[in-house]
Amino acid sequence: MAKLLMTKTTLGNGNTDNQSVRRWVEAQAKLCQPDQIYWCDGSEAEKETLTAEAVAQGILVKLNQEKLPGCYYHRSNPNDVARVEQCTFICTPMQEEAGPTNNWMAPKAMYAKLGAMCAGAMKGRTMYVVPYLMGPPGSPMTKVGIELTDSLYVVLSMRIMARMGEVAYKQLGDSDDFNRGLHCMLDVNPDRRFIAHFPHDNAVISVGSNYGGNVLLGKKCLALRIGSFLGRNEGWMAEHMLILGVESPAGEKTYVAAAFPSACGKTNFAMMVPPAHFKGWKIWTVGDDIAWMKPGEDGRLYAINPEAGYFGVVPGTNSKSNPTAVQTIARDTIFTNVALTPDGDVWWEGKDGPVPKECLDWRGNKWTPDSKEKAAHPNSRFAAPMKNNPMLDPLANDPNGVPISAIIFGGRRADTMPLVYQAFNWIHGVYIGATMGSEMTAAAVGGLGQVRRDPMAMLPFCGYDMGDYFRHWIVMRKLIKFTPRIFHVNWFRKDEAGNFLWPGFGENMRVLKWIVDRCNGRANAVETPLGWVPYAKDFDLSGLADYSSEKFDRVQTINYDDWRRELLQQDELFMRIYSHLPKELIFQRELLVARL
Ligand code: SAT
Ligand code: MN
Question: Which residue has the CA at smallest separation from atom 8 of ligand 1?
């Protein structure tokens, strides 16, 4: 390959003849003025060099390699531990295109503002050029991105979360169709923090943060916000969904995609281990966070996971909640903001085994079991390569993706929502997704515990007007011959005393089995005002200790007072986005009111 004609010192073995890439990198380097430019090639040797560099700089701590081979530890700035929706912008020429649920600024104004902040921002630093793919190599659905960053933590995390290096230039060829991502840490100051998306330019600029969802630009920025915008224009869907395959003892495979808001158990569900009672059943993981879905030639809806790793919530991960994740994160993983034990191990609330007598908490302060604060931040995360997952679906890297039979929506709701119900049809399912609500979690700054409307779990991730996004869902119906069945689940319903009415975790297999059986025309259901629900006799409760069919009836109860309140709350969102709201959804609301 031709030598790079860069004005700066260039390092790394990554290299490309693609003139669009080179011109763009050169222009950004001119703006940010790094001391040197490092072109990543994605190789193992490079990983070793950069990891050693990160350790030398104190960005990563090498963990006990006997216990955790290939694992490292990172502590973030305490002001930078989650996505910040207030700082996240969609920059379309017209505000109307971004819609009422997104922060908006005109592209010209945002480019000027962030250009000024990035000017000279990498002086004394290295600019890393990170080429990556979202999607399996060679897939027609895959997108190329290039992220320029001055954070080694980002480089090493991107290496886990995406297919990074030469493979991206190979897919790109001499095209200029790639996502242009620029990330400057600046001084990691919440007052100078912006995550700005330019959907018409397929570009993202992120400044002032070093936290996953804000800075791993392939993930929420490209795969969801820009992706949803591209998907609408190109006839596919970018969704905040896990993808899993259910294998029956007879070897029948059924694929399911499920949208739950951040930190509501997508990773656990995607890696679920069926309870002993379900002999011969297996769950295979395709993805745990994002699905790109497109109608296939056979009329079914096909999904790929654009990512190559899992960026999961750590606290609560143990051999009961997620034994597969416990295995997956035992090597080659970067842990962020968990606690560090004296023997170079990591610890978090809800980990297997004894509580350490003493450790350093996520801020680096001494922690003992008497401490009032948590040792691990509630949004502490692991970044682990999906190839470590013992239950990785054999088709997870298939360029064609997997055929989806069911779409599941779910939220974290202490009341109102039954354990499971099925939509009457696609458009009713779109209404169920559009009116989803969930109690807020630590994955985003602010509002912990309050119920907020989070349509399709996409409120923080939709790159254009929410009403137009619902319209896109309705339009997609016409492009799919065999539409997936749509369901709503809630693992989190509680009784008056605050106890969960459903055991959750692996027992969710029982719900999943009913869903799969419905898709395959095997399970019975009864019609209710909300949708189809299982008869107690058609729902497998056997082998579930102390769980009576009476308790099942309680978790499935439709409480009419709750639903009156729920409908009013749903209206708040519909009023907010009224000007672009498809009338089909207003009719669905009317039908629901009439049934109730
Ligand atoms: O922090 S991330 O945005 O990567 C995860 C999430 O909030 O869904
Ligand atoms: Mn997510």
Answer: 262
Model pLDDT for residues 109-148, shown as the tens digit of each residue: 999 999 999 999 999 999 999 999 999 999 999 999 999 9
How does 143-162 read in b/e, with b if 16+ C-beta sit within 10 Å? bbbbbbbbbbbbbbbbbbbb
Backbone angles phi, psi at 536, to 5 degrees: -55, -35
Residue 82: C-alpha distances to residues 214, 410, 482, 507 (Å): 8, 22, 38, 30
Question: Is 264 in the active site?
Answer: yes
Q: Which CATH architecture has domain 2-39+83-234?
A: 3-Layer(aba) Sandwich (3.40)
Residue nearest to atom 1 of ligand 1 (CA): 213
pLDDT digits (tens, 9 = 90+) for 30-39: 999 999 999 9
Q: Among all chains, which residue has been given the structure tokens 């170079």?
A: 344
Alpha carbon separation from 291 to 156, 363, 398, 532 (Å, rounded): 23, 34, 14, 26
Q: Which segments of 423-484 are extended strands (E)?
A: 437-439, 451-453
Which CATH fold would you assign to the domain 239-305+396-595? Answer: Phosphoenolpyruvate Carboxykinase; domain 3 (3.90.228)
Angle (CA) 253 556 510, round 5°: 25
Residue 92 token pair: 């379309």
Q: Which residues line ligand 1 (CB under 6 A)?
A: 83, 212-213, 219-220, 262, 311, 443
Of 539, 569, 267, nearest in space to 415 by CA:
569
Q: How many CB atoms lie within 10 A of CB 28?
A: 22
Q: Quote the tokens at residue 70.
A: 């290939």
Q: Nearest C-alpha to atom 5 of ligand 1 is from which residue?
A: 213
3-state helix, strand, coil in the chain (%, to 5): 30, 25, 45
For residue 342, with 0-12 CB atoms within 10 Å meaning exposed, 13-18 middle and 19 or more buried, which class applies? exposed
Tell me if residue 268 falls in helix, strand or coil. helix
Catalytic residue (choose from 32, 184, 264, 359): 264
**Same topology between domain 239-305+396-595 and domain 310-388:** no
Answer whether 315's CB lies under 8 Å from 376's CB: yes
Provide the CB-side half-sphere exposure for 181 (13 A, CA): 33
CATH architecture of 310-388: Beta Complex (2.170)
What is the residue extent of each domain of the chain?
A: 2-39+83-234, 239-305+396-595, 310-388
Three-state secondary-structure class, residue 44: helix
Among the atoms of ligand 1, which is closest to the Cα of residue 311?
4
Task: State the amino acid at position 306 in one-letter form.
Answer: P
Our mutation pick for probing the ligand 1 site, out of 76, 81, 83, counting the most ligand atoms within 8 A of Cβ, is: 83
For ligand 2, the distance from its centroid to the CA atom of residue 290, given in whole angstroms, is 7
Q: Does the pLDDT of residue 416 top 50, yes or no?
A: yes
Going by pLDDT thresholds of 50, 70 and 90, the confidence category of residue 280 is very high
Which DSSP symbol is given to 267? H
* Residue whose CA lies nearest to ligand 1 atom number 4: 213
